[in-house]
Design brief:
seven-stranded mixed β-sheet; six-stranded mixed β-sheet; 12 helices; Purple Acid Phosphatase, chain A, domain 2
């Protein structure tokens, strides 16, 4: 990393800090001049003084105080220990002050004068001589003591801390960050929802840098992980208001969940085009989630829309994400489970949208795992016992349904260089481990068992159909496959776990919708889409169902579920089908087809829908669905059952 690139990185860091915390309104009249030069980053060892350069006359006097205010509005008052206009001012930090982002004031009596803001990195006193070639080093501590055998990585190499908790890395500084791989039985401090597991590097490759990490002991062998697919928060479609409703359901789930509680996102938390048109970027996203959730950690996965559309190439497009959120790939342990976060959105050699060509570069990524990640993954797994359950996340799935029982195994097909991996190479690299792979991207939901050791879970979307159905039909928040917007709930007890899906705006027993297709046909008619040709396939598909068909959408279905449909006590033959969900057709597709000539985000065919044919139009139907955990959900359908969207709205 050359000096110019490092300088660019630092300038961008300053910019985001400014955007995250705008300068507060001056609390009282100005009492000093502005000849105070406050650096954006202070790195000090415990007990050291902070020294502020003074360029000229400041009118600061020895009896003034320094006031520091953190993001939680906690205040720390410090005595000035040295003062010389035109030279310097020094003050000593309180013993218990933590690292973080602080606003800096000069305090004179009851008057606080805002000067600047900075990031503080408080480091334990450390006597270490970095080895030859070492350019990243530091200490990993818990309760003030070094912790041995903790893994630390720069995204390329992985090293262990020594018996004193000290690590040393010889790094190419490709990603300009270093991260700790959280060991079992520990957590890290958080800033809002963000775990402080990584640290930014700012110096050229030949300059040694110290970065420390803190661990907190945690009894987290039993825990619940809430898995959050695509959020697409962008300050559009009433998404922030709708998100409040989703957050209410999630907070209720969190409050009732067993063990420790965490969240894990699956990418596309934001939407890069609206970074520019709506000024909704990662700091705004963090403000939204930090306002909505308290005392819970969010581990993040990067999505295609979390890349900067106005930068060129995979590295530069990821810059703002790695600066503001997390590394693009990393790992951590909770209890007896190893989590690995990877990025299979490859933007290598892709241009910027603002290059004047008129080409939309946002969708010109390929799906694969880069050689860099595959090399790092092999190193990471070398430290993992083969009996340890491994949970891997990426934004895009490695396969995708393309029929009632078939899959597109060539879906992740971007690998075209040595060391890169498509689906088969990726799964093969993991063959020694029991892996559950979690993804988003489709906004739909499916589960697939590839083999005895690799299972895939496409977990649905928080935003459902990009918040559109809830906008055009308030109260009906549905994805294109008919799945309600919601999230996965994974409960871990040691190495054992179970998982389920929670629909936002509903209780945990809402696991399917059943339709009397005789009645659906009366509603999904040729004129329901306002004559738009894009609606033709929808009403024709519905019209083609024979008389007396019962359709059941079981969105969280996998092969461990059972679906039973009986007519007046007689078991009917049930078949899995690849078709459209009627509620989504009428909640989103029909009104969108009426509103615009070229509608998008329309209903998609998906395979977790079941059908049976009754002998009568007026018989009583009982639908009984049993999930993978042995829990049964039942609906008794008195027919004809009128098809109305009001039956499916959020409660």
């Amino acid at each position: 990393m050359d000096f110019k690139k490092s300088l660019f990185f630092i300038l961008c860091l300053l910019a985001v800090l400014a955007s995250c915390s705008p300068e507060p309104k001056q609390e009282e009249a100005k009492i000093i001049t502005t000849n105070i030069s406050v650096p954006s980053l202070f790195e000090v060892e415990e007990g050291q003084e902070l020294i502020i350069p003074l360029r000229g006359v400041t009118n600061i006097v020895a009896t003034d105080k320094v006031l520091l205010r953190d993001v939680a509005e906690n205040e720390f008052v410090c005595d000035i220990t040295d003062l010389k206009d035109g030279s310097r001012m020094a003050f000593r930090l309180p013993e218990k002050i933590a690292g973080g982002y602080y606003k800096f004031y000069i305090k004179r009596g009851d008057i606080n004068y805002y000067v600047a803001a900075f990031t503080l990195n408080v480091m334990k006193s450390l006597v270490v001589e970095p080895g030859e070639g070492v350019n990243i080093y530091g200490i990993v501590t818990c309760d003030g003591e070094g912790v041995k055998d903790v893994l630390v990585s720069d995204g390329e190499e992985i090293v262990k801390t020594d018996e004193n908790g000290i690590y040393q890395l010889k790094s190419n500084k490709n990603w300009m960050y270093v991260f700790v791989i959280i060991p079992s039985g520990y957590e890290v401090p958080t800033q809002g929802v963000l775990p402080q597991l990584s640290a930014t590097l700012t110096q050229a490759v030949d300059m040694p840098e110290r970065r420390d990490f803190e661990l907190i002991k945690s009894d987290n062998e039993n825990f619940t992980m809430f898995v959050l697919g695509d959020m697409h928060l962008a300050n559009r479609n009433g998404d922030l208001s709708q998100f409040t409703g989703v957050a209410n359901t999630l907070n209720n789930s969190i409050s009732k969940a067993p063990g420790k509680r965490y969240c894990l996102t699956l990418g596309d938390m934001t939407w890069d085009v609206y970074w520019y048109s709506n000024s909704y970027t990662f700091p705004e996203y963090l403000n939204t989630v930090n306002t909505s959730f308290k005392d819970i950690t969010f581990f993040h996965t990067m999505g295609n829309h979390d890349n900067d559309m106005n930068s060129v190439g995979d590295y530069n497009k990821a810059f703002r994400y790695t600066r503001d959120i997390a590394p693009t790939f990393y790992s951590f342990n909770i209890g007896k489970v190893h989590f690995i976060v990877l990025d299979n959105i490859d933007y290598n050699n892709v241009g910027a949208n603002n290059d004047g060509t008129g080409t939309d570069y946002r969708s010109q990524y390929v799906l694969d795992y880069t050689a860099e990640q595959m090399s790092w993954l092999k190193k990471d797994l070398s430290f993992v016992d083969k009996s340890t359950p491994v949970i891997i996340t990426s934004h895009a799935p490695v396969s995708r349904p393309n029929g009632a029982t078939s899959f597109d195994n060539n879906y992740m097909k971007g690998a075209n260089s040595a060391g890169e991996a498509n689906m088969s190479a990726f799964i093969s690299a993991l063959s020694d481990y029991d892996v559950h792979f979690l993804s988003g991207h489709t906004h739909n939901l499916f589960h697939r068992t590839h083999n005895a050791k690799f299972s895939e879970h496409n977990e649905g979307a928080i935003c459902a159909s990009w918040w559109w159905s809830g906008k055009v039909t308030p109260g009906l928040h549905l994805a294109q496959d008919g799945t309600p917007g919601g999230y996965g709930v994974w409960e871990f007890t040691g190495k054992d776990f179970k998982f389920s899906y929670q629909s936002a705006g509903h209780d945990e027993n809402y696991q399917f919708r059943a339709y009397d297709m005789n009645e659906v046909k009366k509603v999904v008619t040729s004129d329901a889409g306002g004559g738009n040709a894009k609606f033709d396939d929808y009403y024709k598909t519905v019209a083609a169902f024979p008389a007396n068909v019962i359709l059941v959408n079981v969105w969280d279905y996998d092969n461990d579920w059972t679906v039973s449909i009986t007519e007046d006590g007689k078991e009917l033959s049930v078949a899995k089908t690849y078709t459209y969900d009627p509620a989504h057709i009428m909640a989103l597709t029909a009104p969108r087809c009426k509103a615009t000539a070229s509608p998008n985000f329309l209903t998609a065919k998906w395979p977790h829908i079941f059908r049976a044919t009754a002998s009568s139009a007026t018989s009583t139907i009982v639908v009984k669905v049993t999930d993978r955990n042995g829990k049964t959900f039942t609906e008794t359908m008195t027919r004809p059952k009128v098809f109305t969207l009001n039956d499916y709205k959020n409660k």
